[in-house]
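BUG: 3D viewer hangs when loading the predicted structure for this chain

Environment: internal workstation, default settings.
Expected: structure renders.
Actual: progress bar stalls at 90%.

Input used:
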Amino acid sequence: MEQLTPEQQRGLLVQIGRLILAGITDPAHAAVADFRQAGEHTELEGHNLAPAPELNELFGRLRTGMYATGRGTWLQSRFTLKPDGTFDFDFTLDDEPSWTETPPSSAYPDELAAFPREDEHVPDWWRLRAQLPLRVEFRHARIVDSYTEGEPPVVDRPELDESEAPLVAQYLEREPAILSGSGLGKDIFDPEADGDVPESYHTDGTWIWHASVPHYLRKYGIPPEPELVEHIRGQRFQPPYVEHLVRRTAEADLLGKPRPRPGRSDVKKTEGDIAAERETSPNPELTDEELLVVLVSRLGEHAVWPEAYRIGDRADGAWCLNFTEKGWEVAAYSDGAAVSPKYFDKLEDASHQLLGAVLLHPARMTAGHETPLETAKELADWPVQAAPGEPPLTLLRNKRVSRMVAGTVVLRFGEETGNLVHHGGVRFATTSLPLERERVGGTYRLRRPLHVIIGVTVPWANMPGGAVAYVLPRTIAEHVSDGSLERIE
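Structure tokens produced before the viewer hung:
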């Protein structure tokens, strides 16, 4: 393929800059165009820019013209046009692009076919995607410096500090075995004794060693070779996790077999990986089906009753989400009809509406019903429990775990040895507490957020109940002592 001269490359960059200038949203700030490509998969992303479709062709031509034989061409670039008219162009040859959409599995093999690279210039992340064997070069630890059958082993290595030796041994022993033999091997330092040397090989992804290395360290104080010790120190004596493909690669090397190619399980994201991404990404890309699964999960996490909502269905007394001719409908239903329905073009917007509508008022979470009274056994695993001498959790209905914000003012009836408080404006009669507790108490303000159990008191001992109550994680005295509560005189 024809390579562009530096002058030709600059000419293309100038054309790119002109197209970006024409699409700038705010001329007072820099505009950025990010271009990514592998095989036929391309992505163009603009910042302070409405990118013209022609940019794809220009970036593609530039990328092709910058190909270096055996080295490849760049996969990701960034063009920054500054307000003063100057520009920067940066690209990376070997780093994995920050894709917004995962390329198809064929993208990386296609890239290598179009822009061939010598083996040493294909990084391991790429080898995984293209299902090529890893290029990792293992270092093999010597057990001793030299050994001849029938003669004592020769070891000339710096001794390890007494405090360091067990840490090195533990590092070498904790990594998984990649190849194991049967039985125990002979001790080369005491060949007449019964064999007690484990027959296995281990790796941390950089070094491979025989199990005799930590065995002789513990038994005789024989240190590993200095380079391995320095490597372990560099890891702060914490053995890294070794991926299974790396383990299989090391095993193949030891057996003299061809290195394995990555399998689907080596590159495919697991359900756990996807769950972690959804927990940490503010705007995950989800199909409608996946979005509904997340919506139901969120409703369940907030203890919303199934009777309180419907998805793809309608029921009186429930908030319902359905697709209609007007779009996605969210509405409460009464007498078979939608009450003040809201319509959305996107399911995600409708999901926001349903989730917010149900969670906005606590009674909506139970479809307006009172929760049944639970037994003490059913409540034993709740994260917060009533302190000794306090009413049990069974005397609260519509309970849920909540987070009280700093600045909340609460009222306490009774000594500070308990952990039950009430809404600041509560009437004592609604607390269902013993009469004598009305005479003792105080007002407190939260100085930091606390996770509590919130509920409504049930009628008890000729008291009507109906007060909003909070069960704190610890007693009032403890919270005052650690500064999470302050007394209001």
